[in-house]
Amino acid sequence: MGRTLEPSLLNFLSKLGLKTFFPNKLTLRSLLEINKNSVYDEAVSSMEDTPWCFLRKLFKINAECRNYLCSADDSAENKVNPLDLIVALFLCADSFLRQEMALKMSMCQFSVPLLLPHGDNSQCTLMLWALRDIVKEWRPHDVSESKGFVEENIVQADIPFYSFVRLKNCSLSKSQYLNHMLSQSSNVFINRDMKGGAQKRELANGLVEVCWYLPGGRENLDKFPKPLAFANLRGDLTQSLTQFSFLFQVSTATFVFLDKVEENEHKILSSLQDVSSKLFLVVNQNAAEDMASVKKTVEQLGLPKTNVKTKTPRINVQEFSEKLCTTITNSLQNGKNTTKIENMLNTAVELGLSVDECTSDDQKRVAEEIVKGIGLRPVPDYKNQQLPLQGADWKQLSKLEMEECRLKQAGDHGLEEYKSQLQTEKQEIIDRLCEQKPCTAMTKFIEQVAKTDKMQRDFFLKWMKLKLSAHLQPSMQHSLLRQKLSDHRNKDKKEMADLDQALLESSLGIEHYLREMGLLYEFSSQSPHTGVKVSHLPGLAAEMLLDGYPFELLDGDASNIPQKWVTDVLMALHKKVGEKSRLLVLTVLGVQSTGKSTLLNTMFGVQFPVSSGRCTRGAYMLFLKVGQDMQSQLNYDFIVLIDTEGLRSPSLAQLEDSYEHDNQLATFVIGLSDVTIINVAMENSTEMKDFLQIATHAFLRMKEIGKKPICHFVHQNVGGVSAHAKTKTERKLLLDQLNEMTQIAAYMEKQDSLLFTDMMDYDVEKNNWYIPGLWHGTLAPMAPVNTGYSEAVAEFKRNLLETVKKDRGGEVSQIPEFLEWIRSLWRSVKFENFIFSFRNTLVANAYDNLCKEFSDWEWEFRKEILSWSNTAEMEISNADSEAGLHHWNKLVESKKSQVCKKIADQRTQMDQKLQDYYKRKDRRVNLIEKYKSDFSNQIKSLAKEIQHSANNHLDCTLEHKKSSQESEDLQRKHREVIEDQVMRLLQDCKKHSLSEEELEQEFEKMWAKVTAKVSGLEEKDISAKVLNQLKKHFLNHNVTEDFQNITDLKEIGKYRFKAKTEHVQMKKFNYLWQKYIKRDMQKLADTVVESCKKTVQDKAKTDTDYHDSFTIELLEKVDESLKQIQKKCKPKFVTDLKIHICGIASREFQYMHRQYLIKRDPKIKLEEKKKQYMSDFIDLYKKRDPCQRKATAYVKSCIKPAVEDYINRSLGVKIVDEVCCSAEYSSRSFFQYNIQEELLQKGDSDSFVDYIFKYEIHDIYNKITEALDVSAECEDGTLLPDEKESIPTLINNMRKYLIKDISISVEDEKTTLFQIQSTCLGFIKSLKISLENLKEEMQEEFKKADDISETLNKLPTKPQDELFKRMFGCGHQCPFCKVPCEAGGKEHDQHHAAVHRPRGLGMYRVIETQKLVDALCTTAVHSERKFRNADTGWKLHPYKDYTKYYPDWHIPPDRTIEASDFWKYVLVTFNDKFAKEYKAKPADVPEAWRSITKEQALKGLKEAYNVK
């Protein structure tokens, strides 16, 4: 091919849209961003699209990437030679992108640049750095029998090197022949027959490419027995003499392709040294004169005939290629020279070529200094000396942390004492680790990583990786250990474990140095006195994460997470991105060596290590930035990729801790993930089944906390367009297996039977992906890349992200929430027994938020019905007295119908609020999905309870109306008699002139005579009524004998109730345990009696009459209290206790009834009015107008009681409203925290009301004043006549206006206004003065009230009762430590509490010693210990299996060691008092507990309840 003048470099770059990136400005990081271009493969529409299309496909290992280099416009100017594009991209790429491009090209079986022209033919660069990352594996024939292999960095491989060049006149395509020699099916070198290959080259002449032939160890298939390197110089060698000279010097042999030799070419060839052994001519037979020039050259060079290969027209390309292969094979047998690419550096420099890695010599030197000690001693020794923090102490600390959670080795030690001992051992190790100073290697490492110049840091880290590989690979240590491990399958487990440990210890990579840096921070930051500056390290690691470096999340070698390090690094990253860190977490899981990392690398163009054996264990994550054009669609800022070591490694599957290790890892990463990809490889069917069982367990645990990851199954090595159709049976089989495994997992986790599809949205058609193998055929390592692999992975990626876009429900986690998941999941993993679920802070917060809202909804519901009930009560109380009982009954029935409808409406509203809450995206409702049915049931239960309460209230109001009417009728009768006698006396006295004293004497005589025969109200036998209700309660209980001798309850319950032997279920328990059961029953009975007594006394303090519903409610309360003990006692215990309690209640209710009658006794009522009648009598006699006195009397006798009643009815609701706004009553758990804090601080728990009362007085005062103004007008708006006859109209108008707010006694009105002589306007004026005085008087009275609790007890709606309903919950207590349940509402499937207590506080004791038990139940339930009590029939039962007897209790381990410090402090402080109270001996508390201070106890309490 003739050489013509080419366009300038910059013009060509402009044509491709690359001008702005020249030179070396195109970075690797920019290509890893998740944007539309990286997700959707759009057709090339212009020349500017071609570089990006090439790179995208190259990074996906798509071997077709060189074929997309033409735009839609097919004209010549819109075409580009692939070689020119590759040269242009290498010129624009920075050093690290060059490495990545070379690596990916090599993986695609492409040749890669060795000498890169600068585009203007001025100079070339040796691409040594660009090739440094390429590592190849091969199997030489001499180790094929042992199945050994060589893994080596290709620039360090000492192998024969063959160069292929051409002269100006050459009709043969050397690239074509090279392709035939290397592979039958791969176009390793671009040639003229490929798409774009015939296009005129503008930059690529002078380019030298290199590729490698690598044998697979099969003599009948391998073309060469050894690895070989082949270099190819593009263009006429006379135009690239420097490149040709370089190649001839470094090559084992050089093959020159030609048709004829021109004079200048002859001179060039004649100037070469060692031509007879190193120069081969490949001649295409042409015209005789051309062959003559060749012959002349051969003779003058003295080339043997074997060095000249002539292609005649009769020999085809394939045959001639085989001839060339034979020539090369023969040259190998002659022991030809070998060379390393990295040794070519000196030759390049001598010839004036530049070298791409000379810019990083300083970083290379430091890396060499750090690793120089590796070759002098074994790797384990080097690690112990230079990386001591990740050594034995760190691993032992990890084991102690696991044991602290699992307590498997506790033996006979007390659990809490054993835990304290473990904590002491941990602290000793931590102290030792804190004292460690960074060694020389680490100091230098950190100095380099901390460089402000990112390029220098990146060069250093790459050199570290390369130098570590160089030190470790020559020994083939890893390969041998892996081979041994594989050979020892099914053999001695101890030997396998030793081999595994040896493999572990002999591995050393850059990740070990980064791990050491993390541990240095972890421990130095705990001990600020070490003098080591570490505060900048998290920021450095965060920068590295943003730059695309993987970050070790879980140290799998020690099975631990350095939590402070991980937290601070990720929080530093969170701050660096302006706290915009919405994360989509994606994990690939699968059996060891099934292509997981390759799948991730192909999907996202990243470079997770691809290794065939376990080396550095654990989980690594990598952050990929989501581009601006995709952020709004995906709703994420980063995609986080998590890669793990493989699971169920065949070689390690039989080790005892292998399954545990895999289970931990799978649960951890699945728990962190939003998308989980299960890499299925059915050829490893046994390991695959084990792995699927592990994954199923993990998914089940996630379902329990409401986290439902998207799950895809990827079936690799399944090719063909019909794969999906042909594998329908296999998909069905897989689903059957998954269902079976889910059922097994559910059984093991003690859950209801489930199917796999119950755990997640799984579609057997849409969630299975079939991906062909990465390599075509079985000719590895020379097999060509399968383009179908890349295309299938790209389609999978597109679909996966589309699914994510559609499924945007729920709140997206940012880094702080992600960290909380890490902490909680790892904690659960450490506790091993996953039955305990994941009570982490995020779940707790989500649950508490719902509880707070639900409590508000519940109060709104109650408040609405209470307010309605108050209005209904007023309507019934103010009903027409003359209408009679029938009318009142009808009114009450209509009110019951109304309230029933109102409750149904409120319930519907509350149901809708719950549904709407679960649709919110800001409350993490997915985490609490399992509790939705509990809250739904609670609404149903609440509506039922409120309906029952409202009906009772209406019935009581009706009874009150009837008794009030009876009282008023009697009062009216006596009033009429009195008033008649007063008027008669007045008429008699007017006939005489009497002094005031004489008038009083006359009045007294008349009063005594008239009231002598006034009778009171009849007292009912309340005791008989209570007994009647008690008998009704036991109607179907077959307890007739118990009531035979009971005719009256008056004398019952006067002494303490005693539990008897006859109360105990003797069949269930032997005599030995009777006293313990009787003790428990007595304790419970005392509590129930005291609680019921308080309820009855509070009821008796209200100004109401007895109603049968009081006894019914009391008996229901007893039933609720006895739920937890009914299995242990006979029915007689319940019967006797209820009779006892009803005896107490009968006396209290009788007293209540008596007080009610006294307040309404006609004689007493008349005596109260005596003074007023006397004053009225005297004023009438003396013709005085006592307007102000009458007004004051009216306000005091009629308005004040009504106002007090109004305030009492409103005050309870308003107090609850106000109190509910305070934080301590916002949720049940926070309420528990405040109670315990108060106990600790010994604070006062009384007062929360004052100003509410003042508000209520002001409110009703305004209403009455307004009523007075309105009532002074006639219907036509004119004022009432100013005469005394208008006053009754005024008063009637006021009563009607206020009928919905207050109830004013008509009898009291008539009594007070008897014979009023004032004018209407004068009376109104006096009324206003009296009302103002009343307001001030009532406020003063309330101020002086000594006992607010007395005030509260008199309220119809008692705020303390309403708050109790809100905060108390179901009332159940932990069966071991008696802590109250904190679950929302009363209706829930499981009880739980944030903090449990030492079991001794729940009266548990050691039977033999009678000492209170110090162990917490949260410790016991994950230990190997056993318990016995009445529920187990006093037989020992494992704590771990406590759910057999207490299936409705969920007792998770404490969130932290400090969480239970409060109750530890309490037990230590009051140990003797508790022992005395429980009639036991004090507990033997661990010594460490005695050092807990009050401040630490409070801090632990805050942590347990997540109080900031």
Fold and architecture overview:
This protein is of the alpha/beta class and 1508 residues long. Helices cover 53% and strands 7% of the residues. Strands 10-9-8-5-7-6-1-2-11 form a 9-stranded mixed β-sheet, with helices on both faces. A 7-stranded mixed β-sheet has the order 12-14-15-13-16-17-18, with helices on both faces. Strand 9, helix 12 and strand 10 (308-311) form a beta-alpha-beta unit. The radius of gyration is 47 Å and the shape is elongated. The two termini are 78 Å apart. The model is unreliable at 1-5, 475-479, 648-656, 834-839 and 1242-1256 (pLDDT under 50).
Characterize the largest beta sheet: strand count, sense, and whether it forms a barrel.
9 strands, mixed
The N- and C-terminal alpha carbons lie at a distance of 78 Å
**Percent of residues in β-strands:** 5-15%
Shape: elongated
DSSP strand tally: 20
Kindly report the oligomeric state of this protein. Answer: single chain
What's the helical proportion of residues?
A: 40-55%
Stretches where pLDDT is under 50 for at least 5 consecutive residues are 1-5, 475-479, 648-656, 834-839, 1242-1256
Radius of gyration: 47 Å
Order the strands across the largest sheet as they lie in space: 10-9-8-5-7-6-1-2-11
Integer average pLDDT = 81
The structural class is alpha/beta
What is the count of helical runs? 56
